[in-house]
Amino acid sequence: MTTEVRVPTLGESVTEATVATWFVKPGDTVQVDQMLCELETDKVTVEVPAPAAGQLAEIVAAEGETVGVNTLLAQIAAAGGAAAPTPQPKASKPAAPAPQANEAKMTDVMVPTLGESVTEATVATWFKKVGDAVAVDEMLCELETDKVSVEVPSPVAGVLAEIVAAEGATVDAAARLAVIAEGASAGDTPAPAASAPAKAPAAGDAPPASPSARKAMAAAGLSADAVSGTGRGGRVMKEDVARAAAAAPAAAPAPVSIPVAAPPAASSRAPVAAEDAAREERVKMTRLRATIARRLKDAQNTAAMLTTYNEVDMSGVMEIRNSYKDMFEKKHGVKMGFMAFFVKACCHALKEVPEVNAEIDGQDIVYKNYVHMGVAVGTPTGLVVPVVRDADQMGFAAIEKKIAELGARARDGKLSMAEMQGGSFTISNGGVYGSLMSSPILNPPQSGILGMHKIQERPVVVGGQIVIRPMMYLALSYDHRIVDGKGAVTFLVRVKEALEDPRRLLMDL
């Protein structure tokens, strides 16, 4: 009985790949999930694991071949039928099977699922070093993506034999991070020591290159020693050649140019006095912070962003909250806050002004018949926006529970990518930090974001009398390309009316 090894799904828009490297040969014994080969696409490198244990009977697609999705790559003979073919590898290379006789099983630690639209991450911290004993599910390292931090647990118990991706390295969604000698103890260091030198290229050798990388180097007129490899074991990948080719023209004119006309340095700061520089600390920007900076700037550059303001008397909401908060918490097990009132008020207003809940897609406007409410949460690493899905169909208690759960997961860095995608409108509460008034920035591709602020007692005129009321400034930033001023003002007025008279929410008025 044989098991077929086929090309896995490569991505929504990727239909073919190149077989870059085979890590095993016909006749080799393979384990379940052992890496058999590496495929190269236009965007990422994909490792193909063994779907079953047994013996590699045949390689159908050789290195350098272009294959489509679901193409047959190889065939694995069942473990029970491995006895007959065993002499073949012995005849060609007698020493090959010998090292596997008494070795601990080596298990690869792979990058976990990062999210639908996330293709790479940065290795932020290793909690273990080579030679350390690890237990099942013990945290090995932490990865940093554009939006969240992901902890990588150990899939097996044993000894960390090799760290493939060091701290600071950028890895793709299918990369190998480390190797664990399964079942070994901390004193068994010979196995990792033997495997580490095998991975490192010889001092005088040029780094290895995949077939597609060799073609790209030939087309670009680059030599192998001019390209730095970022692939497995220093392997030169196609994207490495593209980066080297792009850098080559910029590097050529540098010696000839006048110093003043040289390309700008990485830092654009003005010179700093030596005594000041000694008291400064320079820290590399995290991927999350860099992504926040890029997205906020993109929002300003892309959308025709405008902000309109209003103020709301919070007396009605505060009265209801003070009257029912104890009963609410006793029944539902969650505190009654202000956020559920704002979510319900926004859902109510979005029904009347649907363009605030829409987005622009090319030449089309996409109107959404649902409300996935993003709630901005400040964390130690930056601002994230978890999404309360179908908030318009939820009650007060369900909204408060979901917001509390997402807020706790956000502060602990445990949010998944799915929990931060698909929002149609966002609420940002700067009031928790004491902000009296601000202009929130849109969360693309959304067309609206509501800014809440500090509740402050102020004198207002009610029925011809000056009275003291708890007032809050509201700010709606919107994309003027899709939302007109009338729609934006109407939306904010409806939110104000619903909050000043919460009974409107119950009667859908």
Architecture overview:
The protein has 509 residues and is an alpha+beta fold. The protein folds into three domains: 1-102, Beta Barrel (OB fold (Dihydrolipoamide Acetyltransferase, E2P)); 105-188 and 228-245, OB fold (Dihydrolipoamide Acetyltransferase, E2P) (Beta Barrel), CATH 2.40.50; 288-507, Chloramphenicol acetyltransferase-like domain (Chloramphenicol Acetyltransferase). The chain is built from eleven helices and 27 strands. Strands 17, 20, 23, 24, 25, 26 and 27 form a seven-stranded mixed beta sheet that branches. The chain has a four-stranded antiparallel beta sheet with strand order 1-8-6-3, with no helix packed on it. A hairpin with a 4-residue loop joins strand 12 (139-144) and strand 13. The chain is elongated.
